[in-house]
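INFO batch 0412 | record 1 of 1 | parsing
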Amino acid sequence: MLALQKTGFAMEDNSSQLENRVTRLETHMEHVGSNISRITVDLKDLRTDLKDFRASTDARFAQVNDRISMLHITMTEKFGEMNAKFDAKFNEIKVWALTVLGGGTLAVIAHALHWL
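INFO prediction complete | emitting tokens
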């Protein structure tokens, strides 16, 4: 019991120090409040800057997408032309190949039957 009474008395002596600390904390809290208001203003500015940045990047990506789509259309047209040329050449090669094979087959049959 005596120990509890001694600590109780020690706290009564420190009450003036506690009041000083509380007043110091109250003054520091005013600065914290002003800092928080500055931070919220900065955050609002940051949000508007990010919205502007996003709009500009979206515009850039739209331009890039347009360029890529135009390139795709151009490449599709070029490949279509190349396919048409290839088909024409392949048809010519087929005719030549059939002529050679047919002539070769007839030559073999003619030799076999002693027509030549």
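INFO post-check: The chain has two helices and no strands.
INFO record closed
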